[in-house]
Design brief:
The complex is a heterodimer of chains A (622) and B (329). Chain A is an alpha/beta fold and 622 residues long. In chain A, helix 1 runs parallel beside helix 6 and helix 9 packs parallel to helix 14. The longest helix of chain A is centred in the middle third of the chain and has 20 residues. Chain A is globular and about 85 Å long. With 329 residues, chain B is of the alpha/beta class. Helix content of chain B is 31%, strand content 18%. In chain B, the strands form 2 sheets. Chain B has an 8-stranded mixed β-sheet, sandwiched between helices.
């Protein structure tokens, strides 16, 4: 990441900080997500490591000023590693009383509170359930409160432009953003560029947002609201090009890259669902790379189109969230039976049923591992961070093609919409994985397996001499003809199982962060990586005997896992569910692992994991 | 290049019940393909679940026997992934119109270049005799011992409503008519939908008794010919004309048709809609091609967008990885 501008000379003292967490909050129509995303981009350009957490309601435009309509965007940026979006914000920017009410409990004591005082009207206070204005009743005494008349000041800044009042109101997010840019010494250029691109066709709005951003920036400098400004130095530079990605963007880029590495055309069949739709949006942009996207009529058609595409020789993929996986389950069994490559991405959300569509959870692990009828094993991988979605997508496609199997990828809402810097790989240097060449036609049998991988050959239609039929009925070993023979069915079930188990032999052994043996081992999977790693690192820095291990492969499990579990006195498995991986580990390894569970639609805070480990270190627990 | 229809027969023993209408369709399809002269490896037969969905196993081409109701989305994936393939779908009244009803509507409206054969015997055969979406109202089946209280769907009318670009109907027992319709379907560019009326000797014998029976057939069906008046009857002595907005059957001395008989037009959505409702109340059941129009197929539109995008934006993966690409504006 390159710095765009040298820091301007500041009229006020500059304090250096290691890391800062800011939360923007307001109505769901206030442009909070846009402001947050812009702050992230500027922060990436400033060279910090960062982690973000957008938190928005399920309603698109909930009634203005209501508590359930509050939208938030949290960003943690650091001169070191930013493992998580941060536990307690240092700064809260609240655009109305409801945003204050919902978010104040998270702000650290003594934290900075920037509020839009114009929005603290009797009507808005009543909607937020405030009997008296918190700006006047002394209830905010524990914080540094900076009231700003955002609506009025934005209006003044935009005087002379032919704008309606609602149009002016819609610019106040950029006014607030401009202030924050001054306070934390962020460059303005990227946002100015974004504004001119975004509003290319409405120059008036481009001008309005640009003016609002600059006016907020200037106001922060001149109005002596803040006694000082802050600087978070750039994190140690990583080699190569870095850019900010969300998990859903990284997933899409991973699928595109896998298509290139396998030499296969990418097919992505999908049906819109929160929080996975952005993968479809992203891939739909890249027709220039030959990707074929298909917004199907439903989840079942989405996966079936991908199975059809794979049968025809493409890399068939599909993405959804938990409810969509439920609908696709029958087709996943079909893909396992016909033994074709298929990648299914599940960006998990709070369930069951419609549940908490915009919130995160890890409660679909059992579904991924076991949620099909019949004996139907399937490889399961989970991404640990937004950027890791890229790696996991590539790895899932590699396994799908090499082993001729459907592969499930678990992401979640926290990863899908959260962002972090990603080191852009050199695509040409990544290992290729083309499909295995076919034997000559006279030696071809549709279910003649490769002795090493047990994968069947993939003969796509159009090739003369390889004509064959596949389907959901049980196949005779080798020939692939329909077979109802009892011995054959058992043999085929065992072969399909063995094929998936063989994948373990090529997986890297588990890696433990910390001492190779000791008191507590924390085992995680998926998006809890950041909170677990940060907590364990803190404990290790404090001299505690704690280590952690993070699983990317959940089926088959990587080699060395059972042995690693046995080297610690206690094993803790934090999960955003009521105990799924812990159940698997206890069943598989007969280890007395204990769970740390949370199903609030929110990720773990570092402190939550840290305190659970401390309890075990002290001999507590079950 | 004409081929031998036997080249399209697989080595599998055909396991439909003796007397099943499916045999005739299998023979007609093999004959149709042989006449087209396209090599076997370019064909994919896709099916769902049901008696007729065993079809792919009996064709010596590529084949995919999917899951219940989902043949159409599988086939759409095959065709769009590799447009060089000729993709045929064998489906039934339960598979296509009940469990797969949603896919039926959407695959047809997208004009995916598939040849869709709907084997309509008005019964669930493979599950041994429950009512289907095309069973008559009041029909007694295993699941409706007191008679069906469901009103049936009209497949041709539904296909037209779903904007299919080619819609036809044929009788399994009418070899010449079936061959002709299949030949037209095979050559249609875009989705071709063919409803094939066929008997189920075991669970619904006499499913289409009057149109199927040689003794009554010509009095009960009218064969559609583009640009020709609607004339029927063994003696070609009956016709259909419009009275206001409703069709009515009229008799006339052979060779002297009245001037005001309705004339079939495959391009007219109004004529197709009107014909789709005929078959009862003294009006003959139309067989043949109701509608045949040209509209771009999904794979053509997909390929077109890709080639335009390739001219407008970099085709290099690394460029895309390096910097985000904004959407098309």
């Amino acid at each position: 990441m390159s710095k765009v501008t040298p820091p301007r000379a500041k009229s006020r003292p500059v304090e250096d900080l290691d890391s800062v967490t800011i939360r923007f909050a307001g109505d769901s129509g206030d442009g909070i997500q846009v402001a947050g995303a812009q702050f992230s981009t500027a922060t990436a350009l400033a060279g910090n490591d960062l982690s973000t957490f957008p938190d928005y309601p399920a309603d698109i435009r909930a009634p203005q000023g209501s508590l359930y309509g509050v939208s938030g965007y949290q960003i943690h940026f650091s001169s070191g590693r930013a493992y998580t979006p941060g536990d307690a914000p240092d700064v809260l920017v609240a655009m109305n009383p409801a945003a204050l009410k919902v978010n104040l409990k998270d702000l650290r004591q003594g934290g900075l509170l920037v509020v839009n005082s114009d929005a603290f009207t009797p009507a808005n206070l009543a909607k937020a359930g405030y009997a008296a204005s918190p700006l006047e009743d002394g209830s905010l005494a524990g914080y540094r409160v900076i009231p700003v008349e955002f609506s009025q000041r934005t209006g003044e800044a935009l005087q002379g432009l032919a704008l309606t009042k609602p149009q002016v109101e819609r610019c106040k997010n950029f006014y607030a953003l401009g202030m924050m840019y001054w306070l934390y010494d962020r460059p303005l250029e990227a946002t100015l560029g974004w504004i001119s691109g975004k509003f290319k066709k409405v120059p008036l709005m481009a001008e309005a947002n640009r003016k609002a951003l600059l006016a907020g920036n200037a106001f922060a400098e001149t109005a002596e609201l803040f006694g000082q400004c802050y600087r978070v130095k750039a994190a140690p530079a990583q080699a190569g090009l870095c850019r900010n990605v969300t998990g859903n963007e990284a997933m899409a880029l991973g699928l595109l890259t896998a298509s290139q590495l396998s030499g296969l055309q990418l097919w992505y069949g999908s049906y819109p669902i929160t929080p996975a739709s952005e993968i479809l949006h992203e891939l739909s942009k890249y027709k220039n790379l030959g990707v074929k996207t298909f917004q199907a009529e439903d989840e079942i058609a989405a996966v079936c189109s991908a199975i059809g595409a794979s049968f025809a020789g493409s890399l068939g993929t599909t993405g959804t969230s938990g409810p969509g996986v439920s609908l696709k389950s029958e087709a996943l069994g079909l893909a396992a039976m016909v033994e074709l490559p298929l990648v299914i991405v599940n960006v998990q959300r709070g369930g069951p049923s419609t549940g908490l569509p915009t919130k995160t959870e890890q409660s679909d692990l059992f579904q991924a591992l076991y949620g099909r009828h019949g004996e139907c094993p399937m490889p399961v991988l989970a991404a640990a961070t937004p950027a890791d979605c890229f790696q996991v997508a590539v790895e899932a496609c590699r396994i799908a093609v090499k082993y001729m199997t459907p592969v499930l990828v678990l992401s979640d809402g926290f990863l899908g919409i959260g962002a972090e810097p990603w080191r852009v790989p050199d695509a040409a240097a990544l290992p290729k994985f083309p499909p295995r060449p076919l034997p000559p036609p006279d030696q071809f049998q549709p279910y003649q397996r490769d002795p090493e991988t047990l994968a069947r050959p993939w003969a796509r239609p159009g090739l003369a001499g390889y004509e064959h039929r596949v389907g959901g009925l049980e196949k005779a070993d080798v020939t692939g003809a329909v077979s109802y023979d009892p011995e054959n069915h058992e043999r085929m079930c065992r072969l399909r199982q063995a094929k998936i188990e063989r994948i373990a032999s090529e997986l890297p052994p588990v890696e433990v962060l910390g001492p190779k043996q000791g008191k507590v081992l924390v085992v995680g999977w998926g998006s809890t990586y950041g909170a677990i790693t940060a907590a364990v690192s803190r404990l290790q820095a404090a001299g505690e005997s704690a280590a952690c291990l993070h699983l990317r492969h959940l089926n088959p499990l990587p080699p060395g896992l059972g042995e690693a579990l046995s080297r610690y006195e206690r094993v803790l498995v934090p999960e955003l569910n009521l105990g799924q991986l812990v159940y698997v580990l206890r069943g598989r390894f007969l280890v007395d692992a204990q769970g740390l569970h949370k199903v609030k639609g929110q990720s773990f805070q570092v402190a939550e994991v840290e305190s659970a480990v401390r309890k075990l270190l002290k001999g507590g627990g079950r | 290049m004409t081929m031998d229809p036997k080249q399209f027969a697989s080595d599998q023993t055909v396991r439909w019940c003796p007397g099943c209408g499916d045999y005739a369709v299998l023979a007609a399809v093999q004959k149709t393909l042989a006449a087209l002269g396209i090599p076997r490896e370019k064909y994919v037969f896709v099916s769902g679940i049901g008696c007729s969905s065993r079809f792919p196993y009996y064709m010596n081409t590529y084949g995919f026997h999917g899951i219940h109701g989902r043949a159409l989305p599988v086939a759409a994936g095959v065709k769009c992934a590799d447009p060089s393939l000729q993709v045929w779908v064998a489906t039934g009244d339960g598979d296509a119109l009940s469990i797969g009803g949603n896919h039926f509507i959407h695959t047809l409206r997208r004009n995916v270049d598939l040849k869709v054969l709907l084997f309509n015997n008005r019964i669930y055969g493979l599950t041994k005799g429950q009512l289907s979406p095309t069973s008559e109202f009041g029909k007694k089946t295993k699941s409706t011992p007191w008679g069906s209280i469901d009103f049936p769907v009209n497949p041709v009318a539904l296909a037209l409503a779903a904007e299919a670009t080619f819609v036809a109907r044929a009788l399994a027992v009418d070899v010449a008519g079936l061959n002709e319709v299949l030949g037209r379907a095979a050559r249609h560019q875009g989705l071709a939908f063919v409803e094939i009326l066929q008997n189920c000797v075991v669970f619904n014998n006499g499913a289409w008794k009057e149109p199927e029976d040689r003794a009554t057939r010509e009095e009960r069906v009218v064969r559609l010919r583009h640009g020709q008046p609607l004339v029927f009857g063994a003696a070609q002595n009956k016709g259909v004309r419009l009275r206001g907005s409703d069709p009515e059957a009229v008799a006339f001395p052979p060779g002297q048709p009245p001037q005001d008989l309705a004339v079939h037009d495959e391009k007219s959505p109004h004529m197709a809609a009107l014909l789709s409702r005929m078959g009862e109340g003294g009006l003959p059941l139309p067989v043949g091609v109701f509608r045949a129009v040209r509209r771009p197929a999904l794979h053509e539109l997909m390929e077109d967008q890709i080639s335009k995008a390739r001219q407008a934006a970099p085709t290099d993966l690394q460029a895309v990885l390096n910097s985000p690409q904004e959407g098309v504006s």
